[in-house]
Amino acid sequence: MVETAAVVVLAFYAIGYFVLGGGDIGVGMLLPFLAGDAGERRLVVAAIVPFFLSNEVWLVAAAGVLIGLFPSLDGDLLGGLFPLIVAILAGWILRDAGVWFRGRLGGDERAARTWRATCDAAVTAGSWVVAAGWSWVLAGWLSGKADGVLTEPQVVAAIVALLTLFALHGVAFCGLRLDGPVRERCARWFGGAAERRTFVLTSTVLAAVVVVAGSALPFAETVGDGRTLDVLLPAVVAVTPVLLAAQVWVWRVFGRRVSDPRHDPRGRIAMTP
Amino acid sequence: MTPETVELARLQFALTAGAHFVFVALTLGLATLVACLQLRATFSRRPVHAQMVRFWGQLYVINYAMGILTGLVMELQFGLAWSGLTHFAGNVFGSALAMETLVAFFIESTFLALWIFGWGRLNRWVHLAVIWVVTLTAYASAYWILVANGFMQNPVGAELDGDTLVLTDVAAVLSNDSTIGAFWHILAGALVTAGILVAGVSAYHLRRGTPHTELFGRSLRIGVYTALPALFVVVVSGGIQLSGLDDIQPMKVAAFSHDTARIGALELELAERLGPGEYAPPGLARAAALVMLMVFVLLFLLLGLNALLASSRWLIVRARAWHLLLMAMVPLPYVAMIAGWVFREMGRQPWVVYEMLTVSDAVSDIPDSAMRASLVTFTALFGVLIAVTGWLMVRHARSDPATVALGSTAPTAFAPADGTGAGRDERPDPSAAVLTFVGR
């Protein structure tokens, strides 16, 4: 019973990460394809910017819940998947640095433009590495091997399928976030289907993959000691609504679509110093 | 797995944790100062106060990224490289990390996004509350990490059951002497670091004669008068820790005082109790402690002098030689922080969980080549990013406060109370702050 609750809590944070963080990873992957010029690249990065911090903390939380509730699984999984986890972390660092530092150099001279192009490249490359790393991990779990790096043909096929899923999820997320030509371009990927419905669909598929893949993990053998769970689990369950409320607040404050200031009749935003 | 794996894993963890500690020290201290400045600005509605929040806030934001990125890697490194530790002590240690991620990291990052992009969008009192939540959760983060670290230094509230530790007394784990003392010590050290940085950067501008004399004059005074009392807290909390250390880690005390007879006696006693082995910490522990103490004495003298000089408004603006001294002081707290950390961590070697689990028993069963590849990857990435962050911080520190991007999209956020602020009812474009952050 306690163990089931622990698995549910872990699944909640993991799904939260893949659905929310997966969206901005997908956008990062497709940055060069979704944006036609420098102005649009700025918009596509802006689509993820208010959320990337609040999205990635879901993975931080999932990792915390994993080490807290399933301490030996944490060591076995991360140790067994060592190269993939290192790659995911490296990709994550790269894309975060790209997002974080992109706007720190103002101006429009050549050096500043190169700086922003370099940051965009870091976001795209990092996003591909993160997505590929997770696809590989999930593909391994789907094949029933929790803590090893597999290279069978069916695993490779699953990796390609999952990468496609990340990309589609990114397009769906981008379509919800932006306005104007980029939004239309995103809509075309899904044949003009309603954006909310597309995002719900890609989210559901991602969540289902996480649940099915995660069910291969040996939770029963690795769950923490009962005395730890008795204290930690109620604490985690108690703070979760607070964390969720903070997230909902962020979505509400920044949920409006970002529109291209070049098409904005007020034209007030393009005045970055 | 070979002895080299252990050394590679140790080096990797030391570099990650060291980089993390350097940036987080400033994050903790500067967040406090920015939160206090914003409190003042929200009440006073004076433009100079608002400008101080934005200038120092932007420096805080640039610095923040490295803390988060190294912190992330460190959190996963426990599982990656130290699975022996998660197997042995995960029942206690893991809970502290879990609480840190949920009640601290998660909230801190979510609210930081609200603060950065909520400028002018949130009600100004709500925006003020947001930065205070960011600051307090940063403290909470430090506390929970020190619960984990304090448990490794002084494993209380748990007992051995088979080959793993189980939690027996939550209150003992949460109120561990090794945690509480270090918490206040680090918090105060972070304030010294931030105070001296703020004073040093302000001195740079005053020395150059920038037009923002009021902004930097006030900042210089705030920096100096934060750092001095904080240094007292550092020495008191450090002294309390040191006086209790003999009960917890007598070997660390013996190494610190270079008492070879005592070290020998303790080694014999440990060998008798736990079997043969190397139980004395390396000489680096004592060297680090001495560096820490010397820098402390230097800071103490210099800050005393600074506090006297900063009482004169004339000197604050005109004393160019003193400005140079303040600028030169900026690295000192960093040296002391790192040295103190090296003393704490090297001084407990060879243990990862004190007198229970050695570092070499904690390392994961990972091939040398994989460990080396990850060490090279992270060192290269962090090396480049630290250089970029440092360059951006220096660049921002030297820039004109009138050009700060952070908060620039909220012209009405701190409009004068007399109602002269034009267009007060005009809401800024919701995506303006985001687009400013992204750049052109």
TrEMBL record, chain B:
Segments traversing the membrane: 20-39, 60-80, 92-118, 125-146, 182-201, 222-242, 287-309, 321-343, 373-394
Gene Ontology MF annotations? electron transfer activity; heme binding; metal ion binding; oxidoreductase activity, acting on diphenols and related substances as donors, oxygen as acceptor
UniProt-listed GO biological process terms? aerobic electron transport chain
The family database entries (InterPro entries) matched by this protein are listed as: Cyt-d_ubiquinol_oxidase_su_1 (IPR002585)
Instruction: Give the UniProt keywords, A-Z.
Output: Cell membrane, Electron transport, Heme, Iron, Membrane, Metal-binding, Transmembrane, Transmembrane helix, Transport
Note the topology in the membrane.
Multi-pass membrane protein
The reply on keyword Isomerase is: no
Localized where?
A: Cell membrane
Principal location: membrane
Annotated protein name in UniProt: Cytochrome ubiquinol oxidase subunit I
